[in-house]
Amino acid sequence: MTLKVVSAKLAAEIDKELMGPSIGFTLQQLMELAGFSVAQAVTRQFPLNKTSTGKTNVFVIAGPGNNGGDGLVCARHLKLFGYNPIVYYPIKSGRTEFYKQLTNQLDFFKIPVLSDKEKDSWKEYLKSDKTLCIVDAIFGFSFKPPLREPFQSIVNELHDLQDTIPIVSVDVPSGWDVDKGPVEEKYISPKVLVSLTVPKPCSQLLNTEKTDHYIG
């Protein structure tokens, strides 16, 4: 089935309309829906009752923007679904009080949040015997190349292990141009892509034999 896609510009206009006076969604509502959708995709793709390995760790890497916020929400729901999420949040957003509330909620549910000060400890979760999957919630459709540190190094790490641990990308694989696709030699090829609201043009460049595509 061919899915309709929208450009980065149109995706931004859709978000603006959804949060405009005629519809009235808040950013918090949309982020809650997005994060919940990603968590549902993880449970569908990696159901605990069918996982013979007994692994329950889901490693969520959150960026500083709205895509990262979706990841924080996803982690909270995964905890309630019975998984053991660990969040790596190297650059915390100070954009609004809402992001602080999201991390407070993770603390309330005893979900570990690793910061950039723990540059080495986060890599211990990049092992297939510990981690069921990685949620890539670093950058979304507003990403503009090039990647900068620490995210360049993070994406390089994910590229090197993506054949060992499946990656679930939120809306757009991090480091991809939303319209044109990969912009670096080392790029993420996710096992799962969860497009939010509608798919973006880069989703058409994924290998459908290797990537399962959900619409959240």
Explain this structure to me?
It is a single chain. The protein has 216 residues and is an alpha/beta fold. Helix content is 31%, strand content 17%. The protein is built from 5 helices and 9 strands. The strands form 2 sheets. A 7-stranded parallel β-sheet has the order 3-2-1-4-5-8-9. It has a two-stranded antiparallel ribbon with strand order 6-7. The mean pLDDT is 88.
The total count of helices amounts to 5
- Mean pLDDT equals 88
Strand order of the largest sheet: 3-2-1-4-5-8-9
Span of the ends, CA to CA: 17 Å
Instruction: Characterize the biggest β-sheet.
Output: 7 strands, parallel
Radius of gyration: 16 Å
Number of strands: 9
What is the N-to-C succession of helices and strands? HHEHEHEEHEEEEE
Weakly predicted, low-confidence segments: none
Helix and strand content put the structural class at alpha/beta
Overall spatial form: globular
Relative helix content: 25-40%
Q: Give the strand content.
A: 15-25%
GO molecular function: metal ion binding; NAD(P)HX epimerase activity; nucleotide binding
Protein name: NAD(P)H-hydrate epimerase
Keywords: Isomerase, Metal-binding, NAD, NADP, Nucleotide-binding, Potassium
Domain YjeF N-terminal: 11-216
Condensed summary:
With about 220 residues, this protein is an alpha/beta fold. It contains five helices and nine strands; from the N terminus they run H-H-E-H-E-H-E-E-H-E-E-E-E-E.
Keywords:
single chain, 216 residues, alpha/beta, 7-stranded parallel β-sheet, two-stranded antiparallel sheet, 5 helices, 9 strands, NAD(P)H-hydrate epimerase, potassium, isomerase, NAD, YjeF_N_dom_sf
